[in-house]
Amino acid sequence: MSEPRRAAFLAVGSELLRTERLDTNSLLAARTLARCGYALVEKRIVEDDAGAIATATGELLARAELLLVSGGLGPTADDVTREGVAAALGRAVARDAGVEAELAARYRSQRRTPHPIAFRMADVVAGAEVLRNPSGAAPGQWLRTDRGTVVLLPGVPREFEQILSVHVLPRLGTGGAISYRTLRLAGVYESHVEQEVSHLYDRFGRDRVTILAARGQVLLVLAAAGEAAAAELDEMEAAFAAAVGLELYGRDEDTLAGVLVAALRARGLNLATAESCTGGLIGGALTAVPGSSEVVVGGVIAYSNALKQRLLGVSEALLAEHGAVSREAAEAMARGALALGAECAIAVTGIAGPGGGSAEKPVGTVHIAVATPAGLAHALHRFPGERALVREITVNFALDMLRRRLREEG
Questions:
Q1: Phi/psi of residue 251, nearest 5 degrees
Q2: Which residues does 103 contact at the CB level (< 8 Å), separation at least 6?
Q3: Which end of the chain is more exposed for a tag (fewer CB within 10 A), N or C?
Q4: Number of domains in the chain
Q5: Quick check: helix, strand or coil at residue 182?
Q6: Do the beta carbons of residue 209 and residue 155 sit within 8 Å?
Q7: pLDDT tier, 2 (very low <50, low <70, confident <90, very high otherwise)
């Protein structure tokens, strides 16, 4: 794959450094830039401070030939992106009479009287091309420098997207567009996948493969560029799929629950769940899949021993001897779920934390049992992390365990 051009992204806004607002513009920028043959190599968020903006602009231009800057183009005193970028480039900022006239006309059309401060949106960095804003007041600016291209865009997501689509994308073109394919794996950890596929790096290039951990799942993101991208991705997919084997459950937009529902439907099987530590998360994941009612009959959330006995038929003697977090309890819960009227079952019981663990059964201990027409299967796991992470990983490992069992049985 030819070396992609390098781009960077700078989000300006003190609110983005707090908790009330997320930066989503960089995600759209990354997708758009990939279509144009650019790889996003760095993104930053800085406060509404001209000095911080100037410093970030200079440092990012040293790494990338294209810099997108989002936010800080409004009329208020904290909108200082123009000044910060101008300082980094050694340029002046001046009022653009044409933009000023357009702003005045916009206010008149809305029957509003603009405050003089509103015309700060007509201030333009010397040498910039103005990018008209189809959805708002503040225009964007396109600056060519001997260090690279800097594009200033409003931070309002709708306005950002409009200017990016209308003005920026046509200028960048689509030559050398980067295409991606995501292979989705489950029931495995990131380090294990690295060992399985590392022998393919010499063949395809390490920089074309990204391995991402995803809470009980692993994503293998493959990249290719140019006219032969589709064929190259097909070749890469075949090689990586062969390396990971049964761990691969889908690609791109596939979901683990969706793949499992499809497998059950193809075999004419129904599924019931019995959940303790996950508290209904497995059933929620399954029933989020459109059409899941064809195969999911329902489930039981049995947190207490009393409900395990009453609703799932787990015997008091079994619980007394082995405990609720045990192989025996998980398998009994799975048999109880089958009694709800299904041919397949998933049952989980464990200690999600933060309390409740012991030396014998530490926090993160989870027993998973699955049942199919061929019989029962069990797995014991010691999952890492805090409560929410343990529960989420448990969901993915449990769904994957039944998926694998069905695939092995044919």
A1: -145, 160
A2: 114, 118, 119, 121, 122, 137
A3: C
A4: 3
A5: strand
A6: no
A7: low
